[in-house]
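User: My collaborator sent over this chain with a note saying "see what the structure looks like." That's all I know about it. Can you take a look?
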Amino acid sequence: MIHSMTGYATAVRELPQGTVAIELRSVNSRFLDIQFRIAEELRAIEPQLREHLASAVRRGKVDCRIAYTPALGTQPDAALDARVLQRLARLSADVRAAIPDAQTWRISEVLHWPGVFGEDASAHAALRDSVLGLAREAINDLTATREREGAKLAGMMRERVGHMRQRLKALEPAVPAAIALYQEKIATRLREVLATGEEERIRQEIALFGVKIDVAEELSRLAAHLDEVDRVLGQGGAVGKRLDFLMQELNREANTLGSKSVSKELSDAALEFKLAIEQMREQVQNLE
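Assistant: Without extra context I'll predict from the sequence alone. Here is the result:
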């Protein structure tokens, strides 16, 4: 499957401990960039969340927000557990002995430490497990959204590739006639120049003729690049960077075709190709 880098997913669940709301947004980015805004009570699960997201998303900027509202009656009494505080103090002293430059605890960090109010640590573990399960559901929903968007973008690209291929096929019989007309024009010029005996002008006309006369190579490369676009789209996976390179190659051939054009039909076709390529390039920027 081909994935867009744009996606959105939400998940809300009522738990015995309170209400958890998860929101995932993803937009375009050259690399994978994951940002978190998580309630302090759930901050400990961030590494696992990052691992789950990184396994599901290869490229894009992902914003993960998790809000937690404790249920009424579940708020602990404002009584600190002295044993937990002493244990934290010992741990802090050990860390500072090993790493003198380590920062000291902030009060907000201490107050959010599991068990500091004497609550059941197993309840915190159950809450974290439930939130991780909900997060996996949200990530699956985000992936499905990106797949659907990617399928739409791939369909639009295939449609433009098909149009360009039809245009190339229609050009084939017109090229010999255009070249013949150009040959006659050059022959007329050469007869005029030969009458004057200006050798430099003769060489210029011959060189110009050599440059303009053959567009078969450009047409052939355009067709080959279009075949490769179809192949990459069919292959699936992370195709954005490969397709971006192919758009550059297609644009280069279309520009060359326009510069070597010997007829209005070829010039018009080159402009059509450039427009279609630019439209595809914009779509490619959204692909993973």
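A starting point for your reply to your collaborator: The longest helix spans residues 121-171.
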